[in-house]
């Protein structure tokens, strides 16, 4: 039986893959990949996330996916940062007030879906070295950003000049991550903030 031209076209027609635009991310492809990642995690959990499945679901080339996000860990942190509202490192002229703004803003973000997702990423890092490495890099980036807040206060003379601002920043970050993991976000944290903002700390 002969096939018509239309029938041949229908049988050979395949879904069009999304194309990248080189090293620069194509916004539509980026959104499609991250949405596909979120959908797979919703269906199968983080442990069920496979790069090939993401590329297939997003109709994106695997080369594009691996060029932008070389590993599962990189993709997971990219999705988390896309979902999480951007934190504002307020400059009120007071270290104590700046820390209160930062801490309460982050806690508010973590009390919802973003906190659950970040906890899941941390849990996955315990068994996946790649995720652990990406989380370590993310921690370093956040620590640098938070350290800048303390450096600003040091310039104003609010904390001793001989101190390394990253020490107080790491103390605060570790406290917040610990509160998240131990379901302690509802506990009062203002007294801790007061101590960290105290210029007389030895």
Could you describe the 3D structure shown?
The protein is mainly alpha-helical and 202 residues long. The chain folds into 2 domains: 6-70, Orthogonal Bundle (Arc Repressor Mutant, subunit A); 84-196, Tetracycline Repressor, domain 2 (Orthogonal Bundle). The chain is built from 10 helices and no strands. It has helices at 5-12, 27-44, 51-58, 62-68, 72-83, 95-110, 113-125, 129-155, 165-181, 190-196. Helix 5 (72-83) packs across helix 8 and helix 8 crosses helix 9 (165-181). The radius of gyration is 23 Å and the shape is elongated. The termini are far apart.
Q: Which properties best describe this structure?
A:
mainly alpha; Tetracycline Repressor, domain 2
Q: CATH-wise, what's the superfamily of the largest domain?
A: Tetracycline Repressor, domain 2
User: How many distinct folded domains?
Assistant: 2
Total strands: 0
Q: What is the overall shape?
A: elongated
What topology does this entry show?
Blueprint: H1 5-12, H2 27-44, H3 51-58, H4 62-68, H5 72-83, H6 95-110, H7 113-125, H8 129-155, H9 165-181, H10 190-196
Helix pairs in contact: 2-3, 2-5, 5-7, 5-8, 6-10, 7-8, 8-9
Summarize the entry for a quick read:
With 202 residues, this protein is mainly α.
């Amino acid at each position: 039986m002969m096939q018509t031209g239309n029938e041949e076209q229908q049988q050979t027609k395949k879904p069009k893959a999304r194309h990248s635009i080189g090293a620069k991310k194509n916004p539509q492809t980026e959104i499609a990949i991250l949405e596909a990642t979120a959908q797979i995690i919703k269906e199968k959990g983080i442990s069920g996330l496979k790069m090939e499945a993401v590329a297939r679901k997003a109709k994106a080339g695997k080369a594009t996916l691996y060029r932008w996000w070389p590993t599962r860990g990189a993709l997971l942190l990219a999705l988390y940062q896309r979902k999480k509202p951007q934190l504002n490192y307020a400059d009120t002229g007071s270290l104590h007030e700046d820390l209160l703004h930062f801490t309460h803003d982050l806690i508010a973000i973590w009390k919802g879906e973003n906190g659950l997702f970040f906890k899941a990423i941390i849990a996955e890092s315990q068994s996946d070295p790649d995720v652990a490495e990406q989380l370590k890099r993310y921690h370093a980036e956040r620590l640098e950003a938070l350290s800048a807040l303390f450096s600003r206060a040091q310039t104003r003379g609010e904390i001793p000049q001989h101190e390394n601002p990253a020490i107080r920043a790491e103390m605060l970050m570790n406290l917040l991550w610990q509160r998240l993991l131990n379901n302690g976000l509802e506990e009062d944290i203002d007294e801790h903030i007061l101590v960290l903002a105290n210029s007389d700390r030895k």
